[in-house]
Amino acid sequence: LWRLGYSARLLKTNHFRTAASNTSSPAVWMLLARSSGRIPGVFVVVKKNSFFTMPETVEDKTTLELYSPHPQVRGMTLLNREAFKRTVVVPVLKVKKEMVNTLLKSLKHTVLQRPGLKRVVEDPEDEDSRLVILDPHKIPEFSLGESELEVLKQLDIRPEVSKYNLELTYENFKSEEILRAVLPEGQEVTSGFSRVGHIAHLNLRDHQLQYRHLIGQVIIDKNPGISCVVNKTSMIDSTYRNFEMEVLAGEGNLVTKVKENNIAYKLDFSKVYWNPRLSTEHGRIIELLKPGDVLFDVFAGIGPFAIPAAKKRCNVFANDLNPESYNWLLHNCKLNKVGNKIKAFNMDGRDFLLGPVREELSKELPLLKEEQKTSFHIVMNLPALAVEFLDVFRHLLAGEPCSTASLPTVHCYGFSKHDDPAKDIQERAEASLGTSLDGRCSTYLVRNVAPNKEMLCISFQIPAEVLYKRPCP
Question: Domain of life of the organism in this record (predicted)?
């Protein structure tokens, strides 16, 4: 059946291009079908005047248009959902009602698979029949292939492919398809976002700003549960780790609830720092802790390290300079019933290390015995500045270490644009500490923040010669 396929394609391309585009010429389709060998001996003629024949005024470019909104929406800045309506031609098979499910299973790779679009529609001419919509990408030129014909023969279904006017509306298109149709051709399309409770957070590029309100409304329409869309309008403030934002669409309420690693948090997204992309990293650090360990969280935010650590029955000291973060930390401690396991502070990170951290380490480390398994962890998640705080550990404690095993472990985060980011962050940490960390540290790539910008975590036990100031002999 396929012997003459290549010759037929050349024949159609070189000699019948104009005639083949005229779907009202059964003779042309008959010739092409027989030449190609796709249908042995006969070609099913599309009914020109039946109820589901495409009107002459609608272009038959199905494979290009099925998933594309109407071209007239290009450049739209105020969302007009009605403008996305269009009618395209798709192939259908007429099938008896009782055979529909069997056919859907037998031709599951050929039937139209598009969320939101019905695969089976009523047959106005026959209440006992249904029209099964086929994927136009799988049925080129509305002619069935050998495998489809064999299936229909076995099911005793007439292999008659007809055209059907399929109406597409705004609801039938995905957000990326809508935005690609609206924004200038060749420009980057933003359909991804960070979700924080009911809020979608975008970082739009300059060329997208004039479409920002339309983009926001499309995201609300296409993502159940999203009722507010914001765009960041400034870099993160390194002091309080929040940023200015503009509400693009939906309600202006930025107090929301989130759930991370089965723990609930409440926050005001406009006033505190929260990044859902750090969920895995929060979980990774918590996995390192054991019940009874002590965690010092220097830049705690609203508690994504502190609260799960307390849930794991660790003793936690959590600090944040931002008063809003501190208040939400207290709220979330109550929300998760771990207030008795967390001591919260609203201090500068350096003062927190020189005060509560030094006091607790000075008190607890001398009491540890060799057989005791308590570990001390210090988390410093302020990637823009945390490495600069490491000099605080120089001679933070007086005396001699009781045991090298009990030396606190630091998990310090930083950004790097270096070709070798792990080497870069290690060298910067060594410069702050005043000692080499070769063979005494590990680096972990947390995530790619931007092109050529990585976020890393360097973990190490504070060397005894750094942490302790030995008395003069």
Answer: Eukaryota
